[in-house]
Write a structure and sequence with these properties.
Layout lengths: L2 H31 L1 H7 L8 E4 L3 H6 L8 E5 L15 H24 L25 H12 L11 H20 L6 H19 L21
Antiparallel strand pairs: 1-2
Length: about 230
C-alpha cells in the first residue's frame, strides 16, 4: 500500500472511530437525562449482569485462559445499581489512548518505509519528541531540537515541520503520559483527536511526493465537499 492509500486508510479509521465515540456519548447523555427509564427497561430480561471476584491460592493455581476460576461474570444485579455508572467509564482516556496508538502505528510504517533501520527494536518513531511536563516549547533551542527529532525518523531534508504540529505532538504525548503513567482520566479527547489528525496529515505531506490532497468522508457527501 502506498503512502497516499495508507494515509487515507488511517483517516478513514479515525473519522469512523470518532463517529462511534460520538454515538457512545449521545447514548450515555440520553440515558443520564432519563435514568429512571434506563433503569426501568432493564427489568425486562436484566441485560446488564454483575461481575464479582473470588480469589484463593487454590483458585489462582487452577486459573488458565481456558478455565476462569476467579471472575464471576453473570451475577444477578439490580438495575438500580447501573444508573450511577452511566458516566463512570473513562471514555475520553480510552479513546485518546486508542487514537494515539493508531497514529503511532502509522508513524512506524512511514518511518520504516522512508528510513529503514532508524528505529531500534521496541522504539517509537517519536521517541525524540518529549511530552514531559517540563517540555517548554518557548525555548527556541528546545523547539528546534524537537522539530529536528520530528523530521529525523522520516529522513526529511529541506522541509520544516510547522511549529503548531510539533506543539501538537508534544501536547499529545503529554496527555497520553498523564493517562498511562499518572492514571489521569479527565482529558480532552476532542483536542487529542485533532492533534492526531493534524500530525498524521503533516507526516503525509512530508513523506509523499505527490502532494495529492487528502479528502476523507466515508458517508454520503451531500454537498460535494469531498469530491476528488
Amino acid at each position: 500500500m502506498n503512502i497516499f492509500d495508507r494515509t487515507n486508510a488511517l483517516l478513514h479509521e479515525l473519522v469512523t472511530f470518532k463517529l462511534a465515540y460520538d454515538v457512545s456519548c449521545y447514548l450515555a447523555d440520553r440515558a443520564r437525562a432519563d435514568w429512571r427509564s434506563f433503569e426501568m427497561e432493564q427489568h425486562e430480561e436484566y441485560p446488564i449482569r454483575g461481575c464479582g471476584v473470588i480469589a484463593t491460592p487454590a483458585l489462582i493455581k487452577e486459573w488458565s485462559r481456558e478455565n476462569e476460576t476467579l471472575l464471576h461474570l453473570d451475577e444477578d444485579l439490580a438495575p438500580e445499581n447501573t444508573g450511577s455508572e452511566i458516566d463512570s467509564f473513562p471514555r475520553n482516556a480510552v479513546s485518546t489512548t486508542y487514537v494515539y496508538s493508531l497514529l503511532e502505528a502509522y508513524g512506524h510504517e512511514m518511518c520504516d518505509l522512508r528510513n529503514q533501520g532508524y528505529r531500534k527494536e521496541r522504539q517509537a518513531w517519536h521517541h525524540g519528541v518529549y511530552g514531559d511536563e517540563d517540555a517548554v516549547l518557548g525555548d527556541e533551542a528546545f523547539f528546534e531540537k524537537m522539530e529536528n527529532n520530528f523530521r529525523k525518523p522520516f529522513a526529511i531534508e529541506g522541509q520544516v515541520v510547522p511549529r503548531n504540529i510539533v506543539t501538537a505532538l508534544v501536547g499529545l504525548k503529554r496527555e497520553r503520559n498523564r493517562i498511562v503513567h499518572e492514571m489521569e482520566h479527565t482529558c480532552d479527547f476532542e483536542l487529542s483527536f485533532r492533534y492526531v489528525v493534524a500530525i498524521a496529515c503533516c507526516i503525509y505531506t512530508l513523506c509523499d511526493t505527490s502532494k495529492r490532497p487528502l479528502k476523507v468522508y466515508p458517508w454520503e457527501d451531500y454537498h460535494g465537499k469531498y469530491a476528488p
